[in-house]
Amino acid sequence: MQFPESWLREFCNPPLSTQQLADLLTMAGLEVEELRPVAPPFTNVVVGEIVEAVPHPNADRLRVCKVAAGAHTKDGLLQVVCGAPNARAGLKAPLALVGAQLPPAEEGGAPFEIKVGKLRGVESFGMLCSARELKLSDDHGGLLELASDAPAGADLRAALNLDDTLFTLKLTPNLAHCLSVYGIAREVSALTGAPLKTPAIPPVAPVHDAKLPVRIEAPDLCGRFSGRIVRNVDTTAKTPAWMVERLARCGQRSVTALVDISNYVMFEYGRPSHIFDLDKIHEGLVVRWGRPGETLKLLNGQTVALDAQVGVIADATGPESLAGIMGGDATAVSDATKNVYVEAAFWWPKAVAGRSRRFNFATDAGHRFERGVDPALTVQHIERITQLIVEICGGEPGPIDDQVVNLPAPKPVTLRVARAAKVIGMPVTQAQCADVFRRLALPFTEGDGTLTVTPPSWRFDLAIEEDLIEEVIRVIGYDRLPTTPPIAPVTAHVKPEHHRSAHRLRHLLAALDYQETIGFSFVEERWEHELAGNADPIRLLNPIAAPLAVMRSSLVGSLVQVLRHNLARKQPRVRVFEIGRVFMKDASVRDSDTTVAGVHQPMRIAALAYGAADELQWGTKERGVDFFDVKGDVEALFAPRRPRFVAGTHPALHPGRCARIEVDGVAVGWIGELHPKWRQAYDLPHAPVLFELELEALLVRDVPQFQPLPRQQPVTRDLALVVADGVSHEALVDAIGPGEGLVRSARLFDIYKPAQPVAGIGAHERSLAVRLELLDEAATLTDERIDAELARVLQRLAQRVGARLRA
Fold it and tell me: Region 141-158: what's the mean pLDDT?
């Protein structure tokens, strides 16, 4: 909600500065998100009146203007050379006098000073300005045209009220009564005690008795419908400058006089309304729910399909507008319109909520109606709209047709003063609570320690006792809450040493050169099908955007999207990770905080590496990151535990460069290179390497146990073993059996696969060189014992994997 401070102060003008007023609103729950001046600083700019404008003798596009500027031109008229196409005699425009300081052309630059200049041989004593040159708007099509009654020589800042401030409020959904300047003024009056000025809206006398037949068929959609006919309206009339200015300062662009009047009253009193072209309505209007198969072309040009969940205003030919959201194109007013029908209604919030999101757009009207708009003032607001139409566009109004069928019945809410004091955390008296309700204009009755409030028609948010407690403390002031330490002692619980936090894992990954990202939990459905193999993802009822329609069951899609984002910005090396929750359907009943209403939502950790393995440097040759680089990162995360990497297949990963990660025989994740078809589908020059793990598997670690240093020296022996191509490194190490007998460890240090057959190595065989570390902590090893242990190892290798010593 954006509005100018000057408009607010017309309704309520407390003795507070702009910043104090902003702080007051924020502390009362109406967060002021931004304070912005209407215009940047500039000096010595006045209202100038062009008395004469003749062509420049030496330039086709320039004019030599004689400009009157009141007291600033005592000795005659100022001569100003101007190139604006709309420079003409009689026009009033901003005139920057010699010595004026104008806003800089670029942000952060120095102010632009006006000096006496000479353009094509003709002197110029000042500059006539456009809106963009004064940084009032981006319009640079010509001079800023001022009102014809603006006094020449007047300070432009005073003439246009430029010493004003724009407030931008970030309102929560329960503050629907503050979605207007008058509604905010009502809050300011309650908070400060300053008088609230409520302008009288006198009825406009009808000059004919014509009414449009209206029938309400859906009282659960529309509780009150008011309207009136206005004939012989001049729809080509120009919107007054003061209204255009106020709408602009509320962030609303001027369209036509009728549309501007409707928008103005919406910002003024929070009442959305609609103006129909009366001659385009067939027979009468019917307020009803939509019907399957019906369509409606809206004012924004979009054609939507209707059903029984969407409210409409229809005539004899079909729907004419979406109830409470947007009008239809068929009955829109135009320059040819002569007769109009002005409508203001009360639409039930539940009947409007979420409807516009179904059609992927939002409107100011829908934003207000789905939160609740005062049903008691439809007639008064039509009178206000009619008053403005007659003043600006002329016309002959008829009587108001007001149909009341189903208004909300106010339900009294009781506040217990003792309960309020307990919830607030400070003593409050019944008199204080009564004063708050009196200031907020909330009708109430008092009992013994209680106050019973009957919510007024404009308050849809007062339903339970806690709502009244909130009103009490925000009016009394959150700043008056005492600083009270907790009564219970705060004792830090030390986590067991074998358990580490997710934050510790973030540090470990950052040390491995990964950067953390945070992605949406809702993703494109394509990611789930292609990268997670999830044919039935959890769908959102009201997605914030059409592509983000399902909940993710894997973090891989989010990381691939981050990679694409970085590659589009010419980042050749990307290493990112994410710790987040995933969501999967699970009908089983689990006693766990990760399963809620049939949805299993565990935490996972995933990372992606792309590009060079190391940053560019002179000491090493650049090479691309590969499977084993990322495998080493995974092992570093698990250390001192040693995970197993078992060949497998995953929908997102290369079938020959993919492994399932297991810990103690349990699968906890995957690692591999992105599948070639997905690399091509997602327009990636090279395939990244990724891993995804269950977070819980990484939070538990083995605590190192004390072991004395061995008293004996270890012995190392190298074995060159010939095995079949299908024998994996892990199978070979398992056959050696580190920890059994004298073998303390086994480490692979060389692989030899000859290009041509050689003696001792077959066509489908290779040589693996393994270094064994032998140790007996009780006695020194002799050659005989070492040879016997090697013979035992070779026998096990031959039996289990068919290995033999290379000749």
Answer: 89
Global confidence as pTM: 0.70
Instruction: Answer whether residue 542 shows pLDDT above 90.
Output: no
Answer whether 438's CB lies under 8 Å from 432's CB. Answer: no
Strand-pairing partners, residue 404, are: 224
Say what the pLDDT of residue 587 is.
57
DSSP sequence for 90-152 = T-EEEEEEEEEEEPPSSTT-PPEEP--EEETTEEE-SEE--TTTTTS-S--SS--PPPTTSPT
Structure tokens at 390: 């007659």
**Assigned token pair, 576:** 């990112």
Residue position matching structure tokens 């590496």 = 609
Residue 30 has pLDDT above 90, yes or no: yes
Q: Which amino acid is at 14?
A: P
Reference 669, options 653, 686, 687; nearest CA is: 653
User: Per DSSP, what are the bridge partners of residue 452?
Assistant: 414, 445
Q: Residue 181: which of 12, 295, 397 has the closest Cα?
A: 12
Tell me phi and psi for residue 274, to 5 degrees. Answer: -140, 145
Return the pLDDT at 595.
53
Span 543-552, pLDDT tens digits: 877 788 899 9
The tokens describing 93, both together, are: 């425009």
- Asked if the model's pLDDT at residue 778 lies above 50, the reply is yes
Q: Give just the sign of the alpha carbon dihedral 354, 359, 360, 362.
A: negative
**CB–CB of 775/712 below 8 Å?**
yes
Judge contact between 209 and 395, C-beta under 8 A.
no
Asked whether the predicted pLDDT for residue 141 surpasses 60, the reply is: yes
End-to-end CA distance of the chain: 85
User: Is the CB of residue 87 less than 8 Å from the CB of residue 143?
Assistant: yes
Specify whether the CB–CB gap between 531 and 554 falls below 8 A. yes
Both structure tokens of 488: 């219970």
d(CA 690, CA 789): 41
d(CA 394, CA 545): 44
- Within a 13 Å sphere around the CA of 91, how many CA atoms are in the beta-carbon half? 21
CA–CA separation, 377 and 773 (whole Å): 91
Measure the CA–CA gap between 467 and 257, rounded to whole angstroms.
Answer: 40
Structure tokens at 549: 């329609």
Q: What is the pLDDT of residues 557-602, one digit of tens each?
A: 999 999 999 999 999 999 999 999 999 887 554 444 555 567 889 9
CA distance 341 to 331: 10
Q: Three-class SS of residue 58?
A: coil
Contact 462, 455 (CB under 8 A): yes
Shortest CA distance to 714 belongs to which of 736, 742, 738?
742
